[in-house]
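Box 3.1 A note on notation
Throughout this textbook, protein chains are presented in two layers. The first layer is the amino acid sequence; the second is a token string describing backbone geometry. Keep the layers aligned when reading.
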Amino acid sequence: MIKKSIRRAFPVIVACLLTLLFISPVLAAIAQPDNLSIEGIWVYENCRVNGDQLYLILEDIDYSVTGEPSDGADETYMVRLMDGGDTLQYTYPVAYHNDGYDMGVVALYFSPGDAPTWEGLYTLELLGNPFQDWEGGVPSESVTSPDFDLWQTADITTIKTLVASRIIWLANELEDDWGDDMVTTSDTGEDVLTAYAAGYFTNVIPYLSDIAQDIFPVGGYQPTEIVEPEIPPDTAGSDYSDELETNILGTPFDLTSLASNFGVSRGPLTAFLYYGCVAFALIMIARKMGSYKPVMMIGGFLMIIGSFVGVPLVVAILGGLAGLFMIGFAIFYKPSTA
């Protein structure tokens, strides 16, 4: 009777696992960019308070020939500062102009208590989101700290002036690339941001309205409070997915390097290996115990926790549903005794 029950349950297990093994690679892959580059990195110390640090990065994610992905750059790309294998901080491009593609600015801000060692040996990476599916592997570019364009420290007043000047310079660069008016002249003859540019930079650079008050247009976009970067409304639903994904970066479950060696994305590879191991484990348990109920219970639990080991969230949700079905099957199914 036990063997007969196992034979009945086994097709259910196999069907669930095969579905999860093959659904992830079917998801549309993101094309490689026509150009991916870090155009400049400027680091400032003592921007608001003594000991804080601000990293300004000018990047270019170009899809002018291939055509931009359907998702914005805030979902497909990220920037992170690495200390060896440790991520010190990460951020995403702001989907403001052209969904965040073309040239753009990103910023990393460290409070005094969190600031890394000044002029330490770090790596700044611009890379495709490793939890997306990519054609030909995850694209990436990196620059090590000896090649950063500037490390500038001075008193707070001086640094605020230098940061303001750099923002105006960056706005001019974006104006040339975007074709939008980013810099205008104030009544006193000073260069200031246009309302369009101010809306962009206050969402890119934390505390900008506190650090560089004089670059905002009088009578136009004038922040009345400190503005920190906001998540664009159309990506608010992906917060939990992003949290799960970024928590895995740099851990033993991060298979980004292995996936790049095979020219595939980390997500599908993780799903294939994880659910493949689950299938193997369940087969061994079934052979050892001779009962389908422990197999279904253990298998259901393992499928539910897939997202916590790097399986893409959409696949893990399907795995969770399949896992709940397997647990329910184990608890409520009563084999016929006839």
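The domain at 35-238 is CATH 2.60.40.1930 (Immunoglobulin-like). The mean pLDDT is 79.
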